[in-house]
Protein 1
Amino acid sequence: QVQLVESGGGLVQAGGSLRLSCAAAGRTLSGYAMGWFRQAPGKEREFVATIRWSGGATYYADSVKGRFTISRDNAKNTVYLQMNSLRPEDTAVYYCVADTVGPRRSLSRLTRPGDYSYWGQGTQVTVSS
């Protein structure tokens, strides 16, 4: 079992920045991918970014590429999502996710909610125009 706890959400003006954190507990994360999804009201959950814990390879949704950066801190067992140049359409509940991933599996194939077994409780991000 992996427990995920997100923090760092809030209200920000368009063009501003926020950093989300997700602390993982329960087991070592070697062999895991961790990532972020988001869900806006009335919309389906949407993939945002993912990172392979071993090696740090990353993959992003086109909608956030160049604005968001996913990273991890091995010592703290924590993954971060740095969000810059925020837009009103980034408003959503952001969820941290995790699951095991084979060393040869491409991160680009880990973009569906069903690809991840472990989910955090979510943190609200609101971007005002």
Protein 2
Amino acid sequence: QVQVVESGGGLVQPGGSLRLSCKVIGVSLADYAIGWFRQAPGKERERVSCISTSGGSIHFEDSGKGRFAISKDKVLNTLFLQMSSLKPEDTAVYFCAAHEDIRTDYLPREPYEYDYWGQGTQVTVSS
């Protein structure tokens, strides 16, 4: 059974940093592209970032460019989203999702492309 488990959320002041983790259980992260999405209260789920199976292709939405970084640790089977210079508008539940793909550099950008989703981790940016 495949599980996707996010962690690392919390309360942080504006300008602060958080590192979110996405652990994939039951399959090898080496075979999966991973996406991060977020959903703020009253808003639709939106894409934050995605990384291809190989890790060679990465995409960030404009909201996170220059502030967020993403990396894969295939030994830990975990993906990390490093978020810096956080703003109140980054407040949301952050979801990690996994997409199995042998196309090593493909970037799945739409939610329907993802096979497995985590339960989400809350990020609150407030003073």
Protein 3
Amino acid sequence: EVQLVESGGGLVQPGGSLRLSCTASGFTFDDNVITWFRQAPGKEREAISCINCGDGSTLYADSVKGRFTVSTDNGKNTVYLQMNTLAPVDTATYYCAATRSRLIRRSGSNWRVRDFYNYWGKGTQVTVSS
């Protein structure tokens, strides 16, 4: 059974940092693109970063570029999202998702499209507030 489990969320003050983890079971990361999404109350779920997309690259949404870093530990089957300089606008539930889409793996195209992702975690809440 394929499972994705996010952890590491919590309450942090503006300007602070958090590291989220996404641990997979039932498959290996080598064949999958892993993407972090987030959804704030009343807003659409948005893709913010992917790894192993676009021929082994990482991609970021403009809203997090320069502040967030995605990485992987294949030995632990875990993807991390290091989030720095957090702001209240980053408050959301954060999800990781996986896809074996060749299009996304090879070119990175459509990495933001939710319909391409087959597996989702249940999310972890991040709240940025003073």
Protein 4
Amino acid sequence: QVQLVESGGGLVQAGGSLTLSCAASGIIFGIKNMDWYRQAPGKQRELVAYTPSGGITNYSDSVKGRFAISRDNAKNTVYLQMNSLKPEDTAVYYCHVRYSMNWGQGTQVTVSS
């Protein structure tokens, strides 16, 4: 049974930073491509960042240069370091195993102006 558990969300002022974590179990994490998505109220869920099992990470234009995705295969964990946060980054952030139906429960990030 695949389980993805996100943590690290919270309330932060604009310009601040947060680091999200997603701990995975029930999968061979090291060979999986992992994504971070987010969904703001009234909007569709959007891809924020992607890390393949080996290769180059990728980011949406809206977060490029501010967010960094990384992974620790020994800990079965993927991270999202978020810097220079803006109010428009406010959303529920989800961890996802690419090419699967496996999603975490989400963690709320709220950025105040």
